[in-house]
Amino acid sequence: MSNEAFRQLGYRIVDMVVDRHREKDREPAIAEQSPEWFAAQLSQVLPVAGQPIEPLLSQLADSVLAYQQHGDHPRYFARVPSPASYAAILGEWLATGFNTISTSWGGGAGPAAVEKLVMTWLAELLDLPQNSEGVLLSGGSMANFTAFAVAKHERGLGTVYLHEQTHSSLKRNLQNLGFADTQIRVLPCNWQFAFDLEVLRSAIEHDLQAGNQPMMVVASAGTTNTGTVDDLQAISALCQQHALWLHVDGAYGAPAYLTERGKVVMQGLSLADSVVLDPHKWFFQPYDVGACLIRHPGALERCFGMYPEYLKDSQGEHALNFGNRSLELTRRSRAVKLWLSMQTYGTDAMAAGIDVGIDLALYAQSIIEASERWELVTPAQLGVVCLALKGARDGQHAIMAHRLAESGYACVSSTTLAGRSVLRLCTINPLTTTEDIDQTLSRLLEFAG
Ligand SMILES: *Cc1c(COP(=O)(O)O)cnc(C)c1O
Fold first, then answer.
1. CA-CA-CA-CA torsion for 166, 171, 177, 178, nearest 10 degrees?
2. Is the pTM of this model over 0.90?
3. Residue 71 CB–ligand 1 contact under 6 Å
């Protein structure tokens, strides 16, 4: 491909992306097709000979990219949305265009310097010590995995305490790191769907008496189901008392620490040994990027460092090799987009965007509470609210959510809390309007029949 052709196609792609963003209010919040449909749309023949690129771009836009959950759609309220911002998208494109690598100092000093800086900023935003270290990964699952590997390396295998609302990937992580099922305690929650401190305390004491080795408590700063934050201050005191590692999974919730309201509910976050935060959820980044922060300098590299002869040239004298901070060796720079968007908008504006998401859930709560037909199940917490149709039949919530998604107007989740079926809205897109919330709730009622 010639430079000129690449330039023209690049402009064309920018146009496609901007047009889609301008119109995204009108696209379905989520769309799906069957495997048969895709097989009919996309030639299954191995493309031995090349073909013109322009029709392929249209085909990708119309037959592939249209069919997904649009996490940046203003009425995508399911699971955890991803309201990606323009500056972050530009950063992602630029880094890819330069084929950026963030593995070693010798092979990527610039990207390493930016990743170090961004991790320092994230630590500062969360009030973690300035010499905390971190690494960017594909998301919360890998970031939690990386933190657990470090904790295990520092403290050895032992008993780990989670609760019923802890994200399911965390248990999978522990199992794959060699923790036995008998070392993974999934404790029942209190009525707020958080750690019950008495249950946690007695589980730890029981394990001590039984000769087991309590090793880590995994707290949540924003559970996926209800947005609940564990009592981090009290849990941290308990961890200090028993010399346990405190891990905080703030994959979706931790960015709210930038706001006054978030800081209040997350008091104690800064005492954690390790924290995870997903910028592709509530920090306005496109997929993918998850941040793992470790309070203890050198711990990441003690766990993941490797120094074979064939990497000697690249590792350089400055010893800042992100390839030594996780299982990823060759890795792109996820820091460039973070750096560009943090610099462009400023973290005050990003915090203001997060505040809007918190307000939108409170607004949804007010509509639910004023309605005859809705019942509030869990209050608005960090942009998440759970509700139920009064007198809902078995499976009715799932049907309502399904019909709403099929209509294209909006997408919400149906989930289960303490055995009870509920609907759930996650309202973290600052471009969502109160009208969007009103309409989504009233259309859901229409689909209830
Ligand atoms: C989303 C989420 C995860 C998993 O993160 P991925 O980015 O999907 O890998 C873990 N914990 C919590 C609380 C989450 O919300």
1. 130
2. yes
3. no
